[in-house]
Amino acid sequence: MKNSEVAAILSNIADILELQNVQWKPQAYRKAAQVIETLSEDIEDIWKRGGLEKIPGVGEHIAAKIEEYLKTGKLAYYHKLQKEVKINLEELKGIPALGPKKIKLLYQKLGVKNLQDLEKAIKQQKVQKLSGFGEKTEQALAEGIRFIKTKPKRFLYAAALPIVNTFLKTFRTYPFIQQIEVAGSFRRAKETVGDLDFLAVSPQPEKVMDQFTTMKDVKEILAKGTTKSSVRLSNGLQIDLRVVNDKQFGSAMNYFIGSKEHNIELRKLALSKGCTLSEYGLFTLKEKKWIAGKTENDIYQKLGLQYIEPELRENQGEIAAAQKKNLPHLITVKDLHGVFHNHSTWSDGNNSLLEMAQKAEELDIKFISFNDHFGPIGITNPLTEKRLVGYLKEIESVRKKVGIRVFSGVEIDILKDGTLPLSAKRLKELDVVIASVHLAIKMPAAEMTKRVCSAMENYPINILGHPTDRILNERPPLNLNLDSVFDTAKRNSIFLEINGSPSRMDLSGENVRNARAAGCQFAVSADAHDLSHLPFYHLGVNMARRGWLEKKDVLNCRDLKKIEKVLKK
Ligand code: DGT
Ligand code: CA
Ligand code: CA
Ligand code: ZN
Question: With a cut of 70, which residues of the chain have pLDDT below it?
Fold first, then answer.
């Protein structure tokens, strides 16, 4: 899928045009980039059916540029602009705390064109002297540079998902492949993956290797052998594939699903029972007699364990729990009756309330909750006390047109001082109040914790939105004492959000597990800003499963009547 590639180019064009002080055009390119980035449909499919101009924000001109790129792999206009400014935007934009506005100033005032230039300018303390920067910003930028230098870029699970699906679908059509599955961190449903790992069973491994290394999207063959190979795709993602025999498939899956830490513990357990476990199978230690290896189930069973779902295999006590037959009965997507936290054109969403509700109805869920932005979040059109009246009226009319329950609500900013910009009395008139931190995110832990907890103590909040406010690959989590946050949420019967937006996935599985241990309950959300985002709650379920959650831990799984009752504060 080329969606993120196309989005990145359009967004870079917007930035370059801005550097050149061009009016209007940058916003158009940026809007198109944002929409394309989050489309769930493959942009090549959209183009092939002639639908480019139907994408919101994509007009005739931008559509032609996208078409040129999809057809030729190049975009002449983009190359021309790049030549004019000679700036490495991708590199600069990768630095946390550095947005388009600051890049522009650095470029225009100091001639900063890449990371190296920026490092030099920081060293010479030139950056802090620019208007609007100061010492603090300079420090933040230096920190940002360290952050990206030490953290390798990982692919979002959601970006890998269509690649995995296409890969499996294609390879399963080949007659010489008996079985093929994805393993690795992707199988464990981690929010980001370093690379993808596949395992296949085939009587003709060389043929599999040939197919694999000659795929259309391969940019580089990193290694090619008779049973294992690695390639890099044009988007930078690495894929490993190996072929094993049928009798080893389960043990090989077990090994390559990982995690490494889980594997190590499992091997120790095998040894304690007089066996050895490897990717080749489970054997007796002395006679090297084969015990199991065809399926993962066999292996866990022979080791005296319940089957352990891949999402739990992080060596966080799952092996001990499986020994006691005490593993959680993990929730599944089907257990959820609806989805919280959705935006519409009343704030920064792309679709109307009615369109969103109708789409939710198609997805076969029983409720949708609207939570448009309220407060000074920094978007152009947030809800205000005055606009709230019209918003609620329209929700009321949508209710009459769809067959699912429609909850009214807002996503309201937790202000710097821990207050909310709407009174408790007015908030109580809404079905679902989500409160989130969006602004002033750089605060010391004590202050930030006080801010979030005091909002939870003093207002009728139902859900704490994206509690850590992290953005994967871009922004670290807020400085927060999570133990205090979890405790305050529990005491005030506030649900913690599991936000399924691909670059948020907030709370993470690990945080969910800790919060659950602290007695918290959860609400799974899509944070949808477009029709195509509604299924993001499926990704939220990944975090819920990695956090050991069962149906009873998640608000979305209760009967509608019960949900309505607990939301009343
Ligand atoms: P990633 O790719 O960084 O998102 O994470 P994984 O877990 O997919 O790691 P990867 O691709 O390096 O290796 C796939 C699996 O292979 C890993 O989860 C466990 C297994 N594995 C790799 N190296 C080792 C090792 O040194 N010891 C053991 N026991 N297992 C390993
Ligand atoms: Ca991997
Ligand atoms: Ca790998
Ligand atoms: Zn938000």
Answer: 151-152, 377-379
How far is the centre of ligand 1, averaged over its atoms, from the C-alpha of 171 (Å)? 23
Whether 230 is in the pocket of ligand 1, judged by its Cβ within 6 Å, is: no
Count: domains in the chain = 4
User: How many angstroms is it from 436 CA to the middle of ligand 4?
Assistant: 6
Separation CA 366–CA 174 (nearest Å): 40
Per residue in 471-484, pLDDT tens? 998 888 999 999 99
- The domain of 163 spans 155-244
How high is the pLDDT of residue 509? 98
Query: What confidence score (pLDDT) does residue 98 get?
Result: 86
Nearest residue (by CA) to ligand 1, atom 3, is: 194
Of the residues 192, 257, 260, which should be mutated to test ligand 1's pocket, given the most ligand atoms within 8 Å of the CB?
Answer: 260
Looking at the structure, tell me whether residues 339 and 395 fall in a common domain.
Answer: yes
Domain boundary among 323, 345, 370: 323
Decide whether any atom of ligand 1 lies within 6 Å of the 263 Cβ.
Answer: yes
Q: Is residue 545 in some structural domain?
A: yes
Assess if residue 328 is contained within a domain.
no
Last residue of a domain, one of 221, 244, 267: 244
Tell me if 414 is assigned to some domain. yes
* pLDDT single digits (tens) 359-388: 999 998 999 999 999 988 666 789 999 999
Minimum CA distance residue for ligand 1 atom 22: 260
pLDDT at res. 330: 98
Residue 455 in any domain: the answer is yes
Q: Which two tokens stand for residue 362?
A: 């198609």
Taking only the tens place, the pLDDT of each residue in 155-166 is 999 999 999 999
- DSSP designation for 476: P
Peptide bond into 397 cis (omega under 30): no
Same-domain status, 228 and 282: no
pTM: 0.81
Transcribe 505-568 into DSSP letters.
Answer: -BS-HHHHHHHHHTT--EEEEEEESSGGGGGGHHHHHHHHHHTT-BGGGBGGGS-HHHHHHHH-
Is the CB of 259 inside a 6 Å radius of any atom of ligand 1? yes
CATH number at residue 367: 3.20.20.140
